[in-house]
Amino acid sequence: MTGPGRPASQPRGLFGRRGECGVLAGLLKQARDGRSAVLVVRGEAGVGKTALLDYAVVQAADLRVARAVGVESEMELAFAALHQLCGPMLDHLDRWPGRPDMAPLR
User: Which residue has the higher pLDDT, 86 or 52?
Assistant: First the structure.
């Protein structure tokens, strides 16, 4: 036990989420192996979606992480989330992967 009633393999603050953390670990392994994937996290307010994503970010410390947050005031704006994801990376277009003359993003 590492804490009150929590097994050592249980991620801190994510009681009862071993399965979900396993899925996240698998997706991160795929990313490290150069394979892409998509994960949709959904559920009612307060069930721990943000905690799971925060856990994934910590586990992905060696990877580039891009996040978007749904904002009600942007609901009618086309591609608002895509802008949130890609906007910070526009300064790196000269190193965009896929072109042999460009260095990969790290």
Answer: 52
